[in-house]
Amino acid sequence: MESSDKELCKINELIKKSTIIDERSPARYRLKLIKHDLDPSEPYRKMTFGERDSKKPHKTILMVGETGTGKTTLINVMINYMLGVQREDKVWFEITDDQSKDHSPTTIITVYGVYDQNSPDDLTIIDTPGYGNTRGISFDKEIAMNLLRLSKDLHEIDAVCLVIDASQTRLSDRQIYIFDAVQSLFGRDIAENIVLLFTHSTGTPPKNALMAVDAKIKCAVNDKNQPVYFLFDNCQSDAANEEYETIQEQSWKLSHSGITRLFKFFENIKPKTLQMTQEVLQKRKQLEANVSNLQLRVQVTEQKQNELKQTQEALEKNRKYVEDNNDFEYEAEVSYKEKIHINSEFWHLTKEAMCCTVCQENCHYPGCWWVRNLSRCSMMRNNHCTVCTNKCHYSKHIKEAKIYVAKTKKKKRTYVDLKKEYDGKIGDGVSLVKKLEEELQELEKEKIKLVFEAFHCVDTLQMIALNADSLFTLLHVDFLIEKMKEIKEPEKAEILENIKKRAGEENTGALGYITCFIKTFS
């Protein structure tokens, strides 16, 4: 059989495995995919074309980018390249679909497996939703958390493809935020596996776009220490037009050249495990949960401290009654916790929280999106919570649209009531006043421990994260700086202030974008 006949036969076989989308030239077809039945709690879906050959080389790539850059089109460019489609075949195959028609908003990551017997490689494409869309910052954070869950099922990754519009000449605050958010996903060791894919290209070097992103993106570099990038026009599936035939042919050649070079890069790159990336995603998630929990516990601790100080003052003021063991009445601000519904004030955060019913604390809030089996929550280790005070078993936790808040109320108390409360806690030679002082000291120790735990998360991220000074980290830094100063840890406070200064100088506008976005809709 002649080569052209073989190609035609191959195309016809692919058409049989597809459904027609549009009959114009090139005719558009959607490949028939197998949809894998996953656990409903999984935050991603998996779809495959063909059968995996364990003996063939296999590549896994992750596609990330801003909404509207043409990421979906690029995925289809990759598919057609793998299938050996040429312009003269006058066909175009697509693997992507509009998942919003058939899937819930939480199924936001799609894993495509492409296993064509005529292709030298099998390919897995992980398609993340576009960053910076109208669903807001909470949706972008949800992408990161769902990627963390998915990464636990992946052994390694070959490349991260960051899709960028070649026409941009400067970065807006929103775009800086997006690049920051994307890079916040990965460990430091992934940098040399990140490549830039410029869409809507004219074929000339994207000098302005490169200048705009060069200082903001850590990625693979060539022997001239310049970012590794590939150019695409995103017009290969457009309907043929005789008037623009020459331009369309050039467009095809440009994208075909880009995809050929990209797959050549895939051949030479060494895959990376996602261990460090998992640790980064876990630490970011833990930091947010810890700081949220810390704020509640510090508030309760400070309220309790204030209550004990008022009690001490009442004892001092009524020393004569204490010495004579006579009763007296005093008033104090008593600390307590109340569970309230998560309302519109917290719109930008998830609408559910995992709380400990024993410690009465918010163990995973915000960010508790998908998991229903609480033993699998990322805050659990060996079936016990890593966040709440008593590190309680997951069975003592509940997930619902409510969170604990700290409150105080004025309450009249008597010396007799106070003695009853501390009955059995006071040993020989220990006065009630002394016992109250010891409790204050224990509360201060607990507060210090909590602050140190949050600082450790930030410190670890500085060492392992690709984007050590993430804007999301900065959202928590001011609170930690204040608490470090309160517990007299000036060196740690200075470390945090330097992080804030370093990141703030580069991303002032983007930080303002996040803050303004939250304030506008809260």
Automatic annotation (TrEMBL):
Domain of life, source organism: Eukaryota
InterPro entries with a match to the protein in the record: G_AIG1 (IPR006703), P-loop_NTPase (IPR027417), Sigma_54_int_dom_ATP-bd_1 (IPR025662)
Pfam entry (one): AIG1
Keyword Coiled coil: yes
The protein's name: AIG1-type G domain-containing protein
AIG1-type G domain boundaries: 59-208
Single annotated GO MF: GTP binding
Coiled coil location: 277-325, 426-453
Organism phylogeny: Eukaryota, Metazoa, Chordata, Craniata, Vertebrata
Keyword Nucleotide-binding: yes
Family: Belongs to the TRAFAC class TrmE-Era-EngA-EngB-Septin-like GTPase superfamily. AIG1/Toc34/Toc159-like paraseptin GTPase family. IAN subfamily.
Keywords (A to Z) from UniProt: Coiled coil, Nucleotide-binding
Entry-linked CDD domains: Ras_like_GTPase
